[in-house]
Q: What sequence folds into this?
């Protein structure tokens, strides 16, 4: 049976995610706590993996109950910040670590998402397993951290999520909360990198595109995909204004 296997939010954009058992959908359509904070430079541009591989040198932990952000450098230096009260101190500490001027800003209405108007990202466990099988030594856990999805659905076929984008695509529901697929998620350089070391797999993009083309599912609409360097989808919650709650373990159904 299809079920919601995992919910993951990324409290600080570009840094590590944290698994949660439940998550409210914000009125703005994103998950509560997801990308709520971001390190912004003087031009308002965020620090993330697309900008620099240095983000992989920083381990981040977050306690959603207390709002405590724990950051550890690859040299073992650790600091804890009670957010949002410690934002100034966190800004100064991160500026030193990343050798620049950054301010830890907060947006608790939508979060610092890349694509305005879109909500959670969705992938299946089988998709993660399949992608891992394309590369020697790559684990499912590593692929999960590389792709950085919000919702993970188990009990379905690889690339199950692809069926929900394109003309006349169906919707799906998680415990009664309806989702519309919006578009496939085109990838950047981040999935090619080891999430712990930042080291990139040689020819990752080329191998990925080759295997994605070979395994593209019959039930997906190829016209929706601009290219094959894409995996997982971006979705929208039509009833986001009602602030529904998602729970790990709830059934997932095609509508």
A:
């Amino acid at each position: 049976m299809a079920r919601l296997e995992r919910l993951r939010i990324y409290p600080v954009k570009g840094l590590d995610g944290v698994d949660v058992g439940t998550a409210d959908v914000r009125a703005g359509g994103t998950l509560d706590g997801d990308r709520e904070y971001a390190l912004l430079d003087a031009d308002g541009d965020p620090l993330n993996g697309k900008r620099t591989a240095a983000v992989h040198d920083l381990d981040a932990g977050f306690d959603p109950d207390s709002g405590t952000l724990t950051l550890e450098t690859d040299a073992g230096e650790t600091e804890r910040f009670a957010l949002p009260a410690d934002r100034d101190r966190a800004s100064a500490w991160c500026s030193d670590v990343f050798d620049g001027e950054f301010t830890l800003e907060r947006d608790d209405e939508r979060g610092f998402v890349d694509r305005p108007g879109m909500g959670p990202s969705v992938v299946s466990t089988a998709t993660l397993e399949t992608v891992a099988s394309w590369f020697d030594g790559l684990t499912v856990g590593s692929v999960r951290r590389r792709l950085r999805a919000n919702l993970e659905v188990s009990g379905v076929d690889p690339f199950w999520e692809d069926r929900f984008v394109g003309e006349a695509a169906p919707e799906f529901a998680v415990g009664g909360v309806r989702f519309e697929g919006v578009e496939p998620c085109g990838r950047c350089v981040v999935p090619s990198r080891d999430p712990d070391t930042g080291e990139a797999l040689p020819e990752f993009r080329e191998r990925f595109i080759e295997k994605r083309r070979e395994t593209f599912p019959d039930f997906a609409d190829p016209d929706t995909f601009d290219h094959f360097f894409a995996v997982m989808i971006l979705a929208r919650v039509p009833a986001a204004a009602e602030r529904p709650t998602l729970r790990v373990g709830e059934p997932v159904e095609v509508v």
Notes: The radius of gyration is 18 Å. The chain has a mean pLDDT of 95. The domain at 3-29+113-254 is CATH 2.40.33 (M1 Pyruvate Kinase; Domain 3). The CA atoms of residues 94 and 102 lie 7 Å apart.
